[in-house]
From TrEMBL:
SUPFAM superfamilies membership: GroES-like, NAD(P)-binding Rossmann-fold domains
Annotated Alcohol dehydrogenase-like C-terminal domain residues: 145-278
Protein name, as recorded: Uncharacterized protein
Pfam families assigned: ADH_N_2, ADH_zinc_N
Domain of life: Eukaryota
PANTHER family: PROSTAGLANDIN REDUCTASE, PROSTAGLANDIN REDUCTASE 1
GO molecular function: 2-alkenal reductase [NAD(P)H] activity
Cell membrane as UniProt keyword: no
Domain Oxidoreductase N-terminal residue range list: 2-97
Keyword annotations: Oxidoreductase
The organism's taxonomic lineage, starting at the top: Eukaryota, Viridiplantae, Streptophyta, Embryophyta, Tracheophyta
Length: 323
């Protein structure tokens, strides 16, 4: 499917070199099921003066409001966003797509540290937890895509940071790679309350909640007065028919704790600010990132399932193609 592509918005006299011809190779255009769309084969192209007014961004200049501007460079651009699990996706809603401007990092980072999980860590920690230097921070599921970044943000801010994870390898990663002050394997702790008291003799200021149930119950017993809890996820509850109960909610009142759930999708507007903070820190090695990769679209289902048995070490990602 060959296309003529506008390289960038044009000022002054348009040149032939403002455009180029590109080929999509073997990619086939497919109309989404249930849509009224059609695919047509074009036999002739019309050249019209009005097309020049579609080559500018600011329509106020020409007063042309009756037809959309072209989207320059949309072929060949790198984007990340929510798509199907497929080799090619037909995108009709651009609201949830982000153009990738920074290509000096591995592109897979945009599925994790520079994508949705990264923004989750940023929004959940900075927007919901009101963190301050020197505070005590606890993170569950701490070595995963979200947790590893929350912990590093907290460390860079000068907090005391402890994480829990489900294996020795993950605990080592938290302490030695992500620079957490302490970490423990919750599966080897018969009494979570006692474990938290060991690591937080003075209590917890901030809890970044990824797991729910028993851990949340134990944390509530160990929160300080005016503590904050970002309810990010409760992965222990995803696969249960009947959610487990939480018993210590009275402590929200006793200690005047603020607990708040959130959806990352409500924080898309913070993405540029988040990138501004995190990109230099990655470049300077102040923030590190661990991903667990699987090869090929076919390995997707198995890779996804690994999350729920805790087999992933770091962000689970599937490489479809690296072209
Ligand atoms: P992770 O990379 O952390 O992978 C999932 C991990 O969860 C597993 O490795 C395992 O770690 C742990 N886990 C799995 N099953 C259980 C269980 N039954 N009990 C306890 N722990 C379990 O995932 P993400 O970083 O992508 O996500 C972390 C959390 O953040 C999830 O709860 C997710 O739903 C939430 N989230 C919320 C968003 C929002 O908008 N609010 C957006 C994105 C994520 P371990 O070995 O340590 O047990």
């Amino acid at each position: 499917n060959k296309q003529v592509i506008l390289k960038d918005y044009v000022s002054g006299f348009p040149k032939e070199s403002d455009m180029y011809v590109s080929s999509n190779g073997t990619m086939k255009l497919k109309v989404p099921e249930g849509s009224n769309g059609i695919v047509v084969k074009n036999l002739y192209l019309s050249c019209d003066p009005y097309m020049r007014s579609r080559m500018i961004k600011n329509k106020a200049i020409t007063g042309n409001y009756y037809i959309d501007s072209f989207k320059p460079g949309s072929k060949g651009d790198l984007v990340w966003g929510r798509t199907g699990w497929e080799e090619y996706s037909l995108i009709t809603d651009f609201q949830n797509m982000f153009k990738i401007q920074h290509t000096e990092v591995p592109m897979s980072y945009y599925t994790g540290i520079l994508g949705m999980p990264g923004l989750t860590a940023y929004a959940g920690f900075f927007e919901l937890c009101s963190p301050k230097k020197g505070e005590n921070v606890f993170i569950s599921t701490a070595s995963g895509a979200v947790g590893q970044l929350v912990g590093q943000f907290a460390k860079l801010l000068g907090c005391y940071v402890v994480g829990s994870a489900g294996s020795k390898e993950k605990v080592d990663l938290l302490k030695n790679k992500f620079n957490f002050n302490e970490a423990f394997n919750y599966k080897e702790e018969p009494d979570l309350d006692a474990a938290l008291k060991r690591y937080f003799p003075e209590g917890i200021d901030i809890y970044f909640e990824n797991v729910g149930a028993k851990m949340l119950d134990a944390v509530l017993l160990n929160m300080k007065a005016h503590g904050r809890i970002a309810a990010c996820g409760m992965i222990s509850q995803h696969n249960l028919d009947k959610p487990e109960g939480v018993h210590n909610l009275m402590h929200l009142i006793y200690k005047q704790i603020r607990i708040e759930g959130f959806f990352v999708f409500d924080y898309d507007h913070l993405y540029p600010k988040f990138l501004e903070l995190v990109l230099p820190q990655i470049a300077e090695g102040k923030i590190v990132y661990v991903e667990d990769t699987a090869e090929g679209l076919e390995s997707g289902p198995a890779a996804l399932i690994r999350l729920f048995s805790g087999l992933n070490i770091g962000k689970q990602v599937v490489f479809i193609t690296q072209e």
